[in-house]
Structure formats: structure tokens, C-alpha cells
Amino acid sequence: MQNSSSFVMQPLRILGIFLMLVTAISCSKDDSSTPNNNNGNGCTPPATPTVGSNTPVSIGGTINLTASSVTGATGYSWTGPNGFSSSLQNPTITSATSSNSGTYTVTVTVAGGCTSSASTNVAVNVTAPCNPTNNQYTLVGIPAVSFTPLAIQFGVGTSGNYEITCNGSNGDIHLEFAIPTKPTPGIYNVTQLGPLAPADEVKISNTTFNAYWSTSSGLLYVTDAGNGKNVYTYCSLTFSNSTFGTSASGSGKITEP
Predict the structure, then answer these.
(1) CATH number attached to the domain at 1-124
(2) I want to staple 102 with a disulfide (CB 3.0 to 4.6 A). Which of 9, 47, 81, 236 is the partner?
(3) What gap in Å lies between CA 82 and CA 92, rounded to an integer?
């Protein structure tokens, strides 16, 4: 509502004498019919675009990002991980790496500068060189151990690192990442960890028939299984047992419940 005032001079004759009366007249303007606007630009925000991608994408593959056509759109602007940006409606990223995993957001602009945004998540998957039985680990010369991954055992442990513990009838397996958050898809270096360990390191150990086994080298492959669930796979790592003074090659696979 906007207010304004004006003055009107009106003659008045009294006893032969003209007097000028000044009358104040107020008026107002009703702005209640002004369209909703964005950032005070006086335009109507556009419809929220529908976005998507071809996730999960294998490392080295191409990421295809899509945004639906929005009526009156004058521009599309994408941002995402690894410094990604694009002004295309449906951009692509070739030769994808794990650093391209994450959330991508597109902002649509219409005349007057009004905008709307939407986001989509993309996972860039590695491919493990082996495919062990799901939720089982093996050590050469020892019966395979099947386990149950419990949701409550995925999360930040007492160390402050992200940990995974799975329980089986004849043994357990434990993974500890050098980060306080759920790991994103990619390849992680297997070590014994230590102070100020890099974010791409993980410690893997297991207990089989009451014997503790640990490894200090190799690779762990983390892939996206969809619905926000990860798969953790390692292939033919060498696990040592100090009690028996022996070692054995082992492989395993964990799928989040």
C-alpha cells in the first residue's frame, strides 16, 4: 500500500470577500495485486526444474546432467563438485573421476532476474577387480566367514573416524576410515592408519575363530549401490596373524543394509 497527498485550493465567498481554502486530499495505491516477486525484482519465480543424471557412473565414463525445460527461462546455471560450472541446460562431464561425485545444483533464471533451483546427486563408481560373495570374507586355508552388516554399526566410532563393524557366527570384520563422515565412492589405500592419516586411507581387520588378522597394504573399492548405500570390496589382501605367526590372502565384500 502506497500513500500520497495533494492539495486543492477552493474559493469561498463570504461577505463579498474571497477566501482561499486549502483542502488536503489523501489518496492511496493498493499494491496487493502486484505479482509475487523474487529479490524484489517484480517478477514471478519460475517453476522448479526437474533434474536428473545417469548415476552411478563408472570411473572414466561420462556424467550426463539433465534439467527440464522451464517456461520463460533465459538461462541455466550449474554448479557442482571439483569446481564444476556450466551454463548449458543439459551439460556433460567426460572422463569422470571419484572427485566428480557429489551434489550438482542447477539454477534457472527468467526475465526480471527471478530464479529457482534444484539439485541431484551423482556417484562415480570404481570397479573392483574381484567380486567376492556378498557379506562374506575369506582367508586362504580358513573356512569362509559370513556376517551380518548392521545399520547401527555404520557410523562414527569412539576414535572419531567413520567405522564399519560386521558380526558373523565365526568371525567379525572391521573397517576404519581416516575421516569422520561416510566415505564417498572411490579407491582407498589400506594402511594401519596413524596420527593425521590422509583422508583416502582405511584400516581393515578381522577376527576369525578368535584369531585377530590385520593388513597394512592394498586397496579398498567403495561403490554406490543406489538408495544412498555403499558397497565395500577388497581383493586378495595379505592378512597377518601374530598369534600363529602366519599370513593368508583374503577378500571380502560388505553391502550396507
Answers:
(1) 2.60.40.10
(2) 81
(3) 14
Q: List every span in the chain annotated with CATH 2.60.40.10.
A: 1-124
Q: 155-173: buried (b, 16+ CB within 10 Å) or exposed (e) per residue?
A: eeeeeebbbbbbebeebbb
DSSP line for the chain: -EEEEEEEEEEEEETTEEEEEEEEEEEEE--TTSPP-STTSSSPPPPPPPEEE--SEETTS-EEEEE---TTEEEEEEEEGGGEEE-SSS-EE-S--GGG-EEEEEEEEETTS-EEEEEEEE-EE---S--PPTTEEEETTEEEEEEEEEEEEEEE-TTSSEEEEEEESSEEEEEEESSSSPPPSEEEEE----TT--TTEEEEEEEETTEEEE--S-EEEEEEEETTEEEEEEEEEEEEETTTTEEEEEEEEEE--
What CA–CA distance (Å, rounded) separates 211 from 191?
20
As given in the structure block, the three cell numbers for residue 158 are: 569412539
Nearest C-alpha neighbor of 242 from the set 202, 205, 204, 214: 214
pTM: 0.64
